[in-house]
Specification:
The complex is a heterodimer. Chain A has 17 helices and 15 strands. In chain A, the strands form 3 sheets. In chain A, strands 10-11-12-9-8-13-14 form a 7-stranded parallel beta sheet, with helices on both faces. In chain A, α3 crosses α4. Chain A starts with a helix and ends in a 9-residue tail after the last helix. By secondary structure, chain B is of the alpha/beta class. Chain B is about 40% helix and about 30% strand. Chain B has 3 helices and 4 strands, in the order ββαβαβα. In chain B, strands 1-2-3-4 form a 4-stranded mixed beta sheet. In chain B, α1 links the parallel β2 and β3. In chain B, α1 packs parallel to α2. Classes of the chains: A alpha/beta, B alpha/beta. At the A-B interface, α1 of A face α2 and α3 of B.
Chain lengths: ~475, ~110
C-alpha cells in the first residue's frame, strides 16, 4: 500500500505537469523554439558554476570536463535540434498523400545519473521542451543540489520565454517510493531513464512507456593498420575525460600483437602505466564489488593516481591511465568489466580473428548494444568489425566517449541518453533526442493501390490451387504503382 | 477578459470570457471571480437544496493557460460536485481540457 504522503506528492507533481502539458500543446513552433533557445543560453551562461558544483557535490570527475559536458549538453544539443520541426505539420508528401503531424507525449519523468548530473538535466530539459513536453527531474541522491540548481536555471529561463508554469519540476529529495509512484502514475507519459540496470528495469516494468539505457563495456580494437599515436591520443582523450565517467568510454583495449610494442610505448609516453600482475590483483580487489560483480562506486570518477593509491599501487607521478594486462574475459577477470574510471583492461591478440572474438566477448560481458570502437585504416576490417559488434554505435578512429555522445567527431545526434537496443533491454539503439519525444500522427489521403484492387477482385484469389508464385507474378504484372493518385 | 452575471433566481453565476486566457489574464480573472463569489456569499445567502452553480462560458476563447485550468479547478472545488461547467468551448479548447484530464470532471462542453 502506497504511503499517503508519497501518493499526494506524486499526484501533485503530475497534476501540475498535466496542466502544463495541456497549455504547452497549444504553443507554436516559433514560441517553442524561443523557449528552447532561452533555456540553452541560460544553461550556457552557468556552465562553469554548475560544473564546479557537480564536482564538489558528487566528488566525481573534473570540473573543467564537466563544464565541457555542460557546453555540449546546451550549445551542441541546441544546435542539433534547433531547426527540427516538432510542432504541427512536420512533413507533407503529395505523391504518397501522407501528412505527418507532431504531437507532444505529455509529462516526462527524467531520471538523472550521478556521473553526468547537470549536463543530463539540461540535455533532457532541452529535448523535452523542444517537443513541448513538461518534465520532472529525478536526480541521483548524491547530486540533488547541482541538479536542482540546473533545473531551476532552465525553468526560470523557460518561464521568461513564455513557457507554461511547471513545465520543469524537480525533486528535492530522493525516495525510491516516490520515484516508483511517479513512474507508474497514470498521468505520466514517459520515463526517460538514464541510470543503472535496476533503475531501467523498474522504468520498463512501471507500466508507463519508457526509454532506458544499458551499461557499456566498450572494447576499442587497435587493428594493425591503425595510426597508433593518433589512436592512443584519442583513447587518452576519451578515457581520462571527466575521469572516465561517460558510459561510452573505452573499457578494454584489444591490440594486435604485430603493433603491440609500439602501442605500449605510446601509452607509456602519454601517461599510461601498465600494471604488473601483483598490481592487477591489488586493483581487482577494490575495483569490483565481489558480491554483485559491479564496479565499486567509490572509484567512479576518480583520477588514475587516486585509484592507484586506493589500491596501494605506487604509480609514477603524472600517471593519467592505468592499463591492466588481461588474458581472458569473464567474471573471474573482474577488470574485464565496466569501470568508470581511468582504468583499461589490455588484451594482446595474434590476429584479426582472435581480436574480434575478444571484442565480442567484451561486448557481451555487460555491454550489449552500447558502443564499440575501432582504430583502423582498412575499410573491410572496419566493416567486418562493425557487422559483428552488438552495439548501437560503432565509432571509427574516434575517442569513444565523445564519439558516442555525438556531434563532436561525427554526425551522430548529440545525446546523453544512448539506447542499447534489445540486447541492452532497451526499446531503441538510437541516440535519444527531441524527435524521440514526439508522437507522429499521419493523415493519409486516399491513394488507391490499383495492383491490390485488381488482384483482390480476381477469382484466382479464391482458388487455392493457384500458387503463391502465380499470384505474386500477377500482382507484379498489374499496371500502376502501389500508391496511385485516386 | 471576464464579465460575470449572477442570476439570483436560478442561483447561477455565469462568467463570460473573452480574449486569450494566458497566465496574467487568468490571474486577473481569478480576482474578479473571487470578488463575485464573496459578494454572492455575503449579499445573497445561497438557499435551497442545490446551492450555487457556476458556468464558465468559453465561446470567445481560443487559448487557455495552465493558470486558467487551475482557476477552473479551484472554482469547481468551491462550488461543489456537479455545480461547475465550462460551456461553448471550441474543439481545440475542449481538447486542452481533455489533455489535462479535466473535461469530464469539469463538465466541459
Amino acid at each position: 500500500m502506497l504511503n499517503p504522503d508519497i501518493k499526494t506528492k506524486a499526484d501533485d507533481l503530475l497534476e501540475r505537469a498535466a496542466l502544463a502539458a495541456a497549455e504547452f500543446a497549444q504553443l507554436s513552433q516559433e514560441e517553442t523554439d524561443r523557449i528552447v533557445r532561452e533555456v540553452c543560453l541560460a544553461g550556457l551562461a552557468n556552465r562553469v558554476s554548475l560544473a564546479k558544483l557537480a564536482c564538489e557535490e558528487t566528488g566525481k570527475g573534473i570540473w573543467r570536463d564537466k563544464a565541457l559536458k555542460n557546453l555540449v549538453a546546451t550549445l551542441l544539443v541546441y544546435r542539433d535540434i534547433r531547426d527540427e520541426k516538432t510542432v504541427g505539420v512536420i512533413s507533407e508528401d503529395e505523391a504518397t498523400g501522407v501528412i505527418e503531424i507532431a504531437q507532444p507525449l505529455g509529462p516526462i519523468l527524467a531520471v538523472i545519473p550521478v556521473t553526468n548530473p547537470t549536463s543530463t538535466v539540461m540535455f533532457k530539459i532541452l529535448i523535452a521542451l523542444k517537443a513541448r513536453n513538461p518534465i520532472i527531474i529525478s536526480p541521483h541522491g548524491s547530486a540533488l543540489g547541482c541538479c536542482g540548481q540546473a533545473a531551476e536555471i532552465c525553468y526560470r529561463a523557460a518561464l521568461r520565454a513564455g513557457a507554461p508554469e511547471d513545465c520543469v519540476q524537480w525533486l528535492t529529495e530522493t525516495s525510491r517510493d516516490l520515484t516508483h509512484a511517479l513512474m507508474g502514475h497514470e498521468k505520466l507519459s514517459l520515463v526517460l531513464a538514464t541510470g543503472g540496470p535496476g533503475l531501467v528495469r523498474a522504468a520498463y516494468s512501471s507500466g508507463t512507456p519508457a526509454i532506458g539505457v544499458g551499461s557499456g563495456n566498450v572494447p576499442v580494437y587497435l587493428e594493425k593498420t591503425a595510426d597508433i599515436p593518433f589512436a592512443v591520443t584519442s583513447i587518452m582523450i576519451s578515457k581520462t575525460f571527466d575521469n572516465g565517467t561517460i558510459c561510452a568510454s573505452e573499457q578494454a583495449v584489444v591490440v594486435e600483437s604485430e603493433i603491440e610494442p609500439e602501442t605500449r610505448r605510446e601509452f607509456q609516453r602519454q601517461g599510461g602505466y601498465f600494471l604488473s600482475p601483483p598490481e592487477v590483483a591489488a586493483l581487482e580487489k577494490i575495483a569490483i564489488n565481489h558480491k554483485t560483480g559491479l564496479m565499486n562506486p567509490a572509484l567512479v570518477g576518480q583520477s588514475a593516481e587516486t585509484v592507484a593509491r586506493k589500491a596501494g599501487i605506487p604509480s609514477p607521478a603524472g600517471t593519467r591511465l592505468l592499463l591492466a594486462p588481461q588474458e581472458k574475459v569473464g567474471p573471474e577477470f573482474p577488470l574485464s568489466g565496466e569501470i568508470l574510471a581511468p582504468v583499461l583492461a589490455y588484451y594482446v591478440r595474434e590476429d584479426f580473428a582472435a581480436a574480434l572474438k575478444t571484442c565480442i566477448e567484451l561486448n557481451y560481458r555487460g555491454g550489449i548494444g552500447h558502443t564499440a570502437s575501432i582504430f583502423s585504416r582498412d575499410e573491410s576490417r572496419i566493416r567486418e568489425f562493425a557487422e559483428l559488434m552488438n552495439a548501437g554505435r560503432v565509432v571509427v578512429n574516434t575517442p569513444s566517449s565523445q564519439g558516442a555522445v555525438g556531434g563532436m567527431f561525427n554526425t551522430l545526434k548529440v545525446s546523453f541518453t544512448l539506447g542499447c537496443g534489445a540486447g541492452g533491454k532497451n526499446i531503441t539503439t538510437e541516440n535519444i533526442s527531441a524527435r524521440s519525444l514526439i508522437n507522429v500522427k499521419r493523415v493519409c489521403r486516399r491513394r488507391d493501390n490499383r495492383k491490390w484492387l485488381a488482384l483482390a477482385t480476381a477469382d484466382d484469389v479464391f482458388n487455392e490451387s493457384v500458387t503463391g508464385e502465380i499470384l505474386l507474378e500477377q500482382y507484379d504484372r498489374e499496371p500502376g504503382g502501389e500508391a496511385n493518385h485516386g | 477578459m471576464v464579465e460575470c452575471r449572477f442570476d439570483a433566481g436560478s442561483l447561477v453565476l455565469n462568467c463570460v470570457f473573452s480574449g486569450r486566457l494566458d497566465a496574467p489574464s487568468a490571474a486577473a480573472a481569478s480576482e474578479i471571480i473571487a470578488g463575485e463569489l464573496e459578494k454572492i456569499a455575503s449579499a445573497a445567502p445561497v438557499a435551497g437544496p442545490d446551492g450555487l452553480s457556476v458556468i464558465f462560458d468559453l465561446a470567445g476563447i481560443d487559448y487557455v493557460s495552465s493558470a486558467f485550468l487551475r482557476l477552473c479547478l479551484t472554482v469547481a472545488r468551491r462550488a461543489g460536485k456537479g455545480k461547475f461547467s465550462a460551456a461553448n468551448s471550441s474543439p481545440a479548447v475542449k481538447k486542452v481540457f481533455s489533455m489535462a484530464g479535466l473535461d469530464r470532471a469539469l463538465q466541459v462542453d
